[in-house]
Write a structure and sequence with these properties.
single chain, about 80 residues, mainly alpha
Length: about 80
């Protein structure tokens, strides 16, 4: 009887270690995927604000260029 209980305990320990290892690998994979996704989102945000500021700068430059031309046309 004790031998049977000991054998069952060893089986449960082995199953526990297998499940723990599987869970660890899955969590590492999820973390890696989320880290990659976060990096992509951060890059998208950087590009968005770069293009937004560049667009605002170009609008300002074109307004400064067109304003004298528009004033000359009125004269």
């Amino acid at each position: 009887m004790i031998h049977s209980v000991h054998h069952d305990l060893q089986i449960h320990k082995s199953e526990f270690l297998i499940l723990k290892t599987s869970l660890t690998l899955l969590s590492q994979d999820a973390r890696k995927s989320l880290t990659k996704e976060l990096f992509k989102v951060e890059e998208d945000i950087k590009h968005h604000f770069y293009y937004r500021s560049n667009n605002a700068r170009l609008r300002q430059e074109s307004a400064e260029y067109l304003l004298p031309l528009h004033a000359d046309a009125r004269s």
